[in-house]
Amino acid sequence: MAQGTLSEPQEPTSAGQTALEFPDNRLMIELCGEFDKNLAKIEQQLDVQIIRRGNQLDIFGPNEAASEAHSVLSNLYERLENGKSVEFADIDRALRMNPENDNQLEMFSKSSVEIKTRKKPVEPRTDAQKAYVHSLMENELAFGIGPAGTGKTYLAVAVAVSKFISGDVDRIILSRPAVEAGEKLGYLPGDMKDKVDPYMQPLYDALNDFLPGKQLAKLIEEKRIEIAPLAFMRGRTLANAFVVLDEAQNATSMQMKMFLTRLGEGSRMVITGDRSQVDLPRGVVSGLSDAERLLKGIKGVGFNYFTSKDVVRHPLVAAIIEAYDEDSKRALIKNAKRSQEQ
């Protein structure tokens, strides 16, 4: 960790100018990024100019924008001091946070929640993610509900791997409904495994981030890690296991009831889904919505919700989600007015 701390903002020499001085040159280089690409990103997003002079950054721009750039750079540097990396996704998250919200910025730079896996530690990056991880640790049954890209499945698999390597559970079981979305399973080439595996690929991708390839292959071969369609869960009792059902909005009410009642002694279960992406036939009730309605308020069951502000993919994903949400709201208002006129 660097000795010393960031300087306080200097008195502006002109409207909208402030300066930051960094005590550790190595961390300063990491903060700026290769060819100052991190600074360029902040400049573009906040419409400011950042000039680098040795260990000092001078920020020029409108007062509010310069102040926000100062807060973002300060917190990204503090993140580096705490041994974390700074990537474009981290900059996007820092930019989306309100610089006046000290609690949120403190959580971002000094998150005390860290999930240990074989390949790398994983940390929640937003308040909603932090609350979600806490729920996964505390509750035997937890729900993560929200749009794509908010880390629901990724964090659930990370916690599953952490619990597995610490010996808290003996198995990891990951499942998804194999719902046809425009292409019939029967028309796809190969045997049943070949037909189903594409639906399970996001779960394989998450596991590959947390476990070495050879170890993962061995654990799958020994069935200590299972990845299977939801339909394959019928008739089983899942004891001493960490069980994740992903894309739960595409489970029917009966499938959801079947899955939830698989929970056995010493097991934990996580249900993730996005209510805005239901691929079930028209008129079929989503099991996720049904479970949410029936199970809220039951002790030991946690519900956590995410919004576009928690998106950890490309920043455009958050904008896309917000655009669709706004369109849905407009459609609801239009339908309501039409009903009143009739």
Give a brief rundown of this model:
By secondary structure, this protein is an alpha/beta fold. The protein has twelve helices and eleven strands.
**What oligomeric state do the depicted chains represent?**
single chain
Helix percent band = 40-55%
**Which class of secondary structure composition applies to the elements?**
alpha/beta
Strand order of the largest sheet: 8-7-9-10-6-11
Strand content: 5-15%
Mean pLDDT: 82
Order of helices and strands: EHHEEHHHEEHEHEHHEEHEHEH
Radius of gyration (Å):
23 Å
Low-confidence segments, given as residue ranges, are 1-14, 100-105, 181-185
N- to C-terminal distance: 68 Å
What is the number of E strands?
11
Largest sheet: 6 strands, parallel
Number of helices: 12
- In one word, what is the shape? globular
Written description of the protein model:
By secondary structure, this protein is α/β, with parallel strands linked by helices. Helix content is 45%, strand content 15%. It contains twelve helices and eleven strands. The strands form three sheets. A six-stranded parallel β-sheet has the order 8-7-9-10-6-11, sandwiched between helices. It has a three-stranded antiparallel β-sheet with strand order 1-3-2, covered by helices on one side. A two-stranded antiparallel ribbon has the order 4-5. Helix 6 crosses helix 7 and helix 10 packs across helix 11. The N terminus is likely disordered.
Blueprint of the fold:
Elements: E1 17-21, H1 25-32, H2 37-46, E2 49-53, E3 56-60, H3 63-81, H4 88-96, H5 102-110, E4 115-116, E5 121-122, H6 127-138, E6 141-145, H7 152-165, E7 171-176, H8 192-210, H9 213-221, E8 225-229, E9 241-245, H10 253-260, E10 268-273, H11 287-295, E11 301-305, H12 315-341
Parallel strand pairs: 6-10, 6-11, 7-8, 7-9, 9-10
Antiparallel strand pairs: 1-3, 2-3, 4-5
